[in-house]
Amino acid sequence: MAAIDDESFVNATAEVHFGDEGSVVIRVTGEIDIATADIIRQAVAVATEPRPARLVFDLLAVDFIDSSGLAVLLEAAKTADSVRIDPASNIVRRVIEATGLSEMFGMGI
Prior knowledge:
Blueprint lengths: L1 E5 L2 E10 L4 E10 L4 H12 L5 E12 L1 H10 L5 E7 L1 H9 L11
Parallel strand pairs: 3-4, 4-5
Antiparallel strand pairs: 1-2, 2-3
């Protein structure tokens, strides 16, 4: 497990967990916005260095996401064969559904 955070931003953390069979989970807590997007990008870089077959974002503890956060997720989708969001907080689920990205991230409505 590798933890990615930045002491200047206390409102987001990202932990990378390497699993079996080429899957990697990035667990994010706090907010994903313009101020914290680089923290998540760093976690994605660590997680996708070995080009995993499956990248999973655990966003259950995320209480805010804006367009910068969506951009990070979309960028990450280019780095693995499969990208899912599971689980997701209610706010993340609503934003993903409102933007029409549910299917892309394996979040069936």
